[in-house]
Amino acid sequence: MKPQPFVVTPKNYPKPLSVRGEEITVLASGEATGSYEIFVQQGPEGSGPPPHAHPWDESFYVVSGTLDFGIGDEAFIAGPGTLVHLPAGTTHWFRFREAGQMISMTDRLAASKMFTDIDAARELAQTDPAKLAEVALRHGLTRP
């Protein structure tokens, strides 16, 4: 089926997904676009994923707040207006230094399915974090 035009406004955003302390809103899934995905990621201070890599390109644009980013062995601070692009397979991590918001984009349908599965299994974060990590690993994530 050919993708159709669509408009998403704040009043019709889908319910945010809970992923490791962040709220991730899927603005455009790969199913809707036929290719790329776009997300709003909001996180409180200290939230963010551990070092990982995945088989899709990913870009982040910092809207508000300040984040620590790591790419490979390099770390840096990213403030509003910063764009970070990560080709598929790049080991990376980030941590919100303060509450903030990013717009992120991936190059194909993948991350939205992973975020949905992690949200569905979020109670494992309290009871069995290793099993929650297995959910992400099933979607092609790797850890260094």
TrEMBL record:
Domain Cupin type-2: 44-100
Coiled coil regions, renumbered to chain: none
Bilayer-crossing regions: none
Record-linked PANTHER family: PUTATIVE (AFU_ORTHOLOGUE AFUA_8G07350)-RELATED (PTHR36440:SF1)
Protein name, entry field: Cupin domain-containing protein
Organism: Siccirubricoccus deserti
